[in-house]
Amino acid sequence: MPFSDIARAAEDRFHADIIPALRRRGWRPRVIPFEGYGSAAGPPEGAGPQKGNEMARVLGRMVMRPKDAPSEGPLFRSLPEKLPGSAADARDLAMTSILEAQRGWRLFVDVPVPYLPVTVTVGGSRVRTRADRGGYVNVVVRGHGLAPGWHQAKIDAAGAGAVSARVLVVAPGPRLGIVSDIDDTAMVSHVPRVLVAAWNQLVKHSLAREPVPGMAELLTRIQQTHPGTPMVYLSTGAWNVVPTLRSFFKRNGFPDGPKLMTDWGPTNTGWFRSGIEHKRTELRRLMIDLPEVRWLLVGDSGQHDPLIYGEAAREHSDRIAAIAIRRLTPAQQVLAGGITVHPMGLGPEARTLAEADVPVVVGGDGYELARLLPRDIMTPPSH
Is 151 helix (H, G, I), strand (E, B) or coil? Predict the structure, then answer.
């Protein structure tokens, strides 16, 4: 049996053992909602989804929480005094931290509630489903009948009650959209990327991060220049940092938008999920779900964004309006895990971008990218 299967089995066993213990102490399932997106129906003879075929993707997670827990997000806010030195110590620390959460501790690890029955309602449509083994709900609801804009979907989970999950419904018709990476693109955490997962899991303070200069202004200006432009954040970060990201984006003036994150931990193919495949898959899905949108892809030169975005543009040049890459400094390149630096500021993956038949710009921050991006992106369309 592969080691990843053993790890998955151990993780499932841990959750199965701890959920009854938490229930005896008054903990109950809680729905943590995430932002989703969807499409609106166009006119009967026009382009876009027809009435009844419009879709909404609703996202959330089922976790165990004490009755007096915050409404959403991770409870853990401070590091333990002594880090575990072995797997057994880590299990004991996690168990102790969870059981002491009601007496002032903050949650060290989320305890998902797998396979919980869930009913999702969006507009006039309803879908019944179940959470997956990680407690996640990722469901598409069709025929919702909602107009473009932000709406509230309802996620009603057995034993957890109903919560609202925001969904951005994109208007029909051709339009520009933005996909942006987060780490080293929207914000700089000054932490080596190999430690970003641990940093996010153990610290999670949005005040410890700094915005990339000019990036919020760039994204906001494009949205204001092209009304109705959907903003989507695509990251290899973990879902449980979404509440912290909301605070960071709001405080630093970033546009509101769905955040497509990933889950950490063993899978049926390995110890950890592939961040590259996560981004590739989500980009393809956005193109399928929102077929009339042409995307501006914003990332950084730290690791794999040039490769992923270049592949997308090479295969779907009609769906990519432009690519903007934030060039990291040599010190940031090292923190991001880069090994070599191309003379243009990118790694060897730059040749993939060179083969892409779309405009590609490279700049040190949002201000420089704004000066370099094509005029049709940075100025209102002429009529």
Answer: strand
